[in-house]
TrEMBL record:
It comes from Tyrannus savana. It is found in: Membrane. This is VAS1L protein. One of its GO terms (molecular function) is ATPase activator activity. Pfam families: Ac45-VOA1_TM, VAS1_LD.
Length: 184
């Protein structure tokens, strides 16, 4: 026989009553054989509590913990499969809507969030690179500046420059069209 010790309490933060399973006692021949303290088994009083596994085993997240090391509860392994409990406000013999023990961040959800973050970072980097992309025309404009040709000797270029008439500025045009125009 199993005995569940439930309590109810009012929490101002949630503005409602909650019930908690505090203790599970296993009885045999009307005497207590083992006592387990329950952890994290609570729900609003108008709901029921549901969990796939409520167990004293670590592989099922051990929601039931032996109450002391001196009693016989260390010898017991207790596991409830598809566990659902409602202590208060039971109507027509049916469970109310269940608060499930599954966490919001299961491994699948956590991996989906991590992958989304990685893809978002890749997209942000790609947009950053596109914004700072410079065209090739601007790159080659710098190469054709007068400073680029300053290393050439004037006597080598003497026969290739031809004066142009411009509004007071002295400028020259190269006869060899592969270099383009240079203004000084």
């Amino acid at each position: 026989v199993s005995r569940f010790l439930l309590t109810t309490s009012y929490y101002q933060l949630s503005v409602q009553n909650w019930f908690s399973l505090h203790r599970l006692q296993l009885l045999y021949n009307h005497s207590v054989q083992a006592t387990f303290n329950a952890t994290r088994i609570h729900a609003p009083a108008t709901y029921s509590y549901h969990c796939d596994h409520v167990s004293s085993l670590q592989r099922y997240d051990a929601l039931l913990i032996p109450s002391s090391e001196n009693d016989l509860s260390q010898l017991w392994e207790v596991t409830f499969i598809d566990f659902q409990i409602q202590g208060f406000n039971i109507q027509e013999g049916h469970f109310a809507y269940a608060k499930d023990c599954a966490s919001f961040f299961s491994p699948a959800i956590l991996m989906g969030l991590v992958m989304s973050l990685i893809l978002l970072l890749v997209l942000a980097y790609a947009l950053h690179m596109l914004i700072h992309l410079k065209s090739l025309d601007r790159h080659y404009e710098g190469k054709a500046s007068p400073a680029y040709f300053a290393q050439m000797k004037d006597n080598d270029m003497g026969d290739e420059k031809e004066p142009l008439r411009n509004s007071g500025n002295e400028s020259y045009e190269l006869r060899n069209k592969q270099f383009g125009k240079i203004y000084i």
